[in-house]
Amino acid sequence: MSPKNETIGIIGAGWVGLVTAACFAELGHRVIVLDVAPERIEQLKAGKVPIYEPGLTELLERNKERLSYTLEITDLTDDADFFFICVGTPPTYAGDADLSAVWAVIEKLPALEQRAIVVMKSTVPAGTGEKVRAALDARGLEHLGYASNPEFLAEGRAIDDFVHPDRIVVGSLEPADGERVGALYAGIDAPIVYCDVPSAEMIKLASNAFLATRISFINEIANVCEVTGADVEQVAEGMGLDRRIGPHFLHAGIGYGGSCFPKDVTALKQLAGNSGYHFQLLSSVIEVNELQKRRVIGKLEKHLGSLAGKTVAILGLTFKPDTNDMREAASIVLGSRLLAEGAVVRAWDPLAEPDSYLRGATICDSVLEAVTGADAAVIVTEWKELRELASETVRSAMRNPLIVDGRNLLDPDQVSAAGFAYECVGRPGHCSSASGPSRASEPQAE
Ligand code: NAD
Ligand code: UGA
Question: Is the minimum distance from the CB of 52 to ligand 2 under 6 angstroms?
Answer without folding.
Answer: no
